[in-house]
Amino acid sequence: MSLAQSARHDAGGARDGMPSAGKPALWVFMGVVTVLFAQFLHAYIVRMGYADWQRLPTLPTVWLNTALLLLSSAALQWAQVAGRHGRRAGMRGGLFLGGVLALAFLAGQLWLWRQLTALDYVIASGPASSFFYLLSGLHGIHLIGGLVAWGMTIRRVGHNDVTADGLLAVELCARYWHFLLALWLVLLGLLFIVPPATILAICSSA
Amino acid sequence: MAYSSAEQHHEPHSFWTRYVWSQDHKVIAVQYTITAIAVGMVALVLSNLMRLQLGFPGRFAFIDANHYYQYVTLHGMIMVVYLLTALFLGGFGNYLIPLMVGARDMVFPLLNMLSYWVYLLAVLVLMASFFVPGGPTGAGWTLYPPQSILPGTPGSDWGIILMLVSLLIFIVAATMGGLNYVITVLQARTRGMTLMRMPLTVWGIFVATIMALLAFPSLFVSGVMLLFDKVLGTSFFMPAIVSMGQALSYKGGSPILFQHLFWFFGHPEVYIVALPAFGIVSDLISTHSRKKIFGYHMMVWAIVMIGALSFVVWAHHMFVSGMNPYFGFFFATTTLIIAVPTAIKVYNWVLTLWHSDIHLSVPMLFAIGFISTFLIGGLTGLFLGNVSVDIPLSNTYFVVAHFHMVMGVSPILVIFGGLYHWFPKVTGRLMNETLGKLHFWVTFLGTYAIYFPMHYLGILGMPRRYYAYDNYAFIPASAQQLNAFITVAALIVGVTQLVFLYNLVHSTFRGRPAGSNPWRATTLEWQTPETPPGHGNWGAEQPEVHRWAYDYSVPGMAQDFVPQNSAVAGGGDDHDQTVVKAAPRRGRKKT
């Protein structure tokens, strides 16, 4: 995902004096990812209605990871606000911290996978297990894509004052992070928290 | 971020950056087109091999049942995804969107380049499946589980894995391209180019791209989950099953779920291919009949309506899979409703032609041929949209005839028409007209010779997907004669495509110089300062648009067309406004 980078390099290229295309492009991309996950969750909820459904245990690591992603998103929000006020140090610090926390989240997810595997919940051991690995893995891949854009943004804002380009890149990162956080909260709810009976009651009445 | 165009557009100088690792949308479009045509030739050969077996069963020893199913599968998949989708969006979309909306390039050139190379990777992975043990998958292009990943189906070891991986890669490529096309249309239109002044080609490709962005995720989901079932032993789609006398470890999955996901992609896919064709054909007809398109606004809204409706009709592909009768009723109704905007488009094309100055150039012949084949294919679609008619016909050649007419032949005719039409802009030379007419007539009459008889075979009850028809008492011997006739026609049409390829290559180097606007067309791509257009397309100044794209034969004008960037009074937009608006939709503000 090098949208942020593309936004800087390419904006203004297609039309003389064109405003940056990074923002609308990110919105469209998030729309596509939303559709992608909506389709997965559609399949998930259909499958949940079968009699043999058994949910995975909610290990404490799930909460730890959720907290890490929340903090990561908050740090990027901090970076964005600091950047808008022209505070270079705050922007760089928040950006850096946000990325590190996201890496910690990914490490935590891998740890969660190992814990579940140790409990004999492997990918083929049941539908809930299969969906968990699939959805958390896919979410992680999207976060890794975000981290690539984050790495480029770090390089860009590293040595300069707050520029319009740099701030835009930080804002795009923050927006994408909030999106991935929201996506994770939806996954968290459907995978671990909301009782299957409730989900099925809501979805079958709709 | 106020760039001047000169700073932004460093023209690439080395051969590699100009023609291979190019970020110029025009080069990428040509790369897409050549790759798609190459892979399409593979699919053409596969179809002729299939026809050899059907027309002369058993005569060709190397075509055994396994090979036959592999040919069927790869022919379908290549044609639908790797040829039609890639050529319309990656080829025509890439070339025409920036030029037609007056942009200097796509908004994200780097992403655009990546899109092509990722697409090429998808094609190579698919082609690699011809060379793995067991060969490519023979599961049918719909890849329905459980059979697609179980032993007994050809290519169930490696072929199916490469097929699924290739599709996933293709979707990544299509998404990268799609982001570009959508944002370019939304953000990079030149001054004066309002949405309602865009040529219908751009509208068709634009809406089709949005549909692709919404529909391909569904294929991605089904592809990933099927791949997991195959490789990692999950049971997303796989029920408990006994295969070759052995109980497998799968249990509890839903094959029907795959069908829903697949067709939620699969039906919009029909219109992802059809909408660009609709758009291009509208422009060809208007240009070559020297008349404004009839009902421009209606045409735009029909495109949007068809795009939206096509997302709520998918289960009409599953009537034979069984479903709640109310669902069947719903999907049959939505399917028939889609005929309304589609019929509006056909009427408007015909009304555009009515009393117009028709020039039977090669692009125009293909455009008119399209109206005919699309109408025939669309009418049989009305039969098949009804559950009670679909069920007996669904597994017969009637369906083969229907979908080939409506989404096989029809878009292919438009692709040919488009290639003949825009070739002079891409190369600066005209294609040979005599060869083009030969190509058209053999292809057009040939497709009728091939697909018209198939309707009768279908009504006779001749099942599709079969390798051989021995010992089916209800199939008369004359059906075999018809099959032999169809095969001969298919071979003739297949060989005739070599004439097209020869024309394409020969005219690129030896064609008659075309000048900048050989069809005397109004749209911006014909108004570039250079032909072929240079890097950045427009020289120092981007064009400013003063009118819609269809000012043909405006009364009182010196010429029978007024280019979109012409500031002369007269003509105007759809409602025959005589006042030309300056309409600076978005000024040149610094950001």
From TrEMBL, chain A:
A GO-annotated cellular component: plasma membrane
Stretches assigned to the Heme-copper oxidase subunit III family profile domain: 1-196
Entry-linked PROSITE patterns: COX3 (PS50253)
Primary location recorded for the protein, binned into one broad class: membrane
Subcellular compartments: Cell membrane; Membrane
Record membrane topology: Multi-pass membrane protein
Alphabetized SUPFAM superfamilies for the sequence: Cytochrome c oxidase subunit III-like
One record GO biological process: aerobic electron transport chain
Coiled coil regions, renumbered to chain: none
GO MF entry, a single one: cytochrome-c oxidase activity
InterPro entries hit by this protein: Cyt_c/ubiquinol_Oxase_su3, Cyt_c_oxidase-like_su3, Cyt_c_oxidase_su3-like_sf, Cyt_c_oxidase_su3_a-hlx
Pfam families linked to this entry: COX3 (PF00510)
Annotated transmembrane regions: 25-50, 62-81, 93-111, 131-150, 179-202
Keyword Transport: no
Keywords, in A-Z order: Membrane, Transmembrane, Transmembrane helix
Domain of life: Bacteria
Record carries keyword Transmembrane helix: yes
Listed Gene3D superfamilies: Cytochrome c oxidase, subunit III, four-helix bundle
Matching PANTHER family: CYTOCHROME C OXIDASE, CYTOCHROME C OXIDASE SUBUNIT III
Family affiliation: Belongs to the cytochrome c oxidase subunit 3 family.
Name of the molecule in the record: Cytochrome c oxidase subunit III
Organism: Pseudogulbenkiania ferrooxidans 2002
Species classification: Bacteria, Pseudomonadati, Pseudomonadota, Betaproteobacteria, Neisseriales
Automatic annotation (TrEMBL), chain B:
PANTHER family in the record: CYTOCHROME C OXIDASE SUBUNIT 1 (PTHR10422)
Membrane-spanning ranges: 27-49, 69-97, 109-132, 158-179, 200-228, 261-281, 293-314, 326-350, 362-385, 397-420, 440-462, 482-505
InterPro entries, per database record: Cyt_c_oxase-like_su1_dom (IPR023616), Cyt_c_oxase-like_su1_sf (IPR036927), Cyt_C_Oxase_1 (IPR000883), Cyt_c_Oxase_su1_BS (IPR023615), Cyt_c_oxidase_su1_bac (IPR014241)
Species this chain originates from: Pseudogulbenkiania ferrooxidans 2002
UniProt entry tagged with the keyword Transferase: no
Entry's localization field: Cell membrane; Membrane
Catalytic activity: 4 Fe(II)-[cytochrome c] + O2 + 8 H(+)(in) = 4 Fe(III)-[cytochrome c] + 2 H2O + 4 H(+)(out)
Function summary: Cytochrome c oxidase is the component of the respiratory chain that catalyzes the reduction of oxygen to water. Subunits 1-3 form the functional core of the enzyme complex. CO I is the catalytic subunit of the enzyme. Electrons originating in cytochrome c are transferred via the copper A center of subunit 2 and heme A of subunit 1 to the bimetallic center formed by heme A3 and copper B.
Any one biological process term the GO annotation gives: respiratory electron transport chain
Record keywords, A-Z: Cell membrane, Copper, Electron transport, Heme, Iron, Membrane, Metal-binding, Oxidoreductase, Respiratory chain, Translocase, Transmembrane, Transmembrane helix, Transport
EC number: 7.1.1.9
Catalytic class of the enzyme: translocase
Annotated region (Disordered), positions in chain: 563-591
Annotated metabolic or biological route of this protein: Energy metabolism; oxidative phosphorylation
UniProt topology in membrane: Multi-pass membrane protein
Pfam families attached to this UniProt entry: COX1
The protein's name in its UniProt record: Cytochrome c oxidase subunit 1
Keyword Translocase: yes
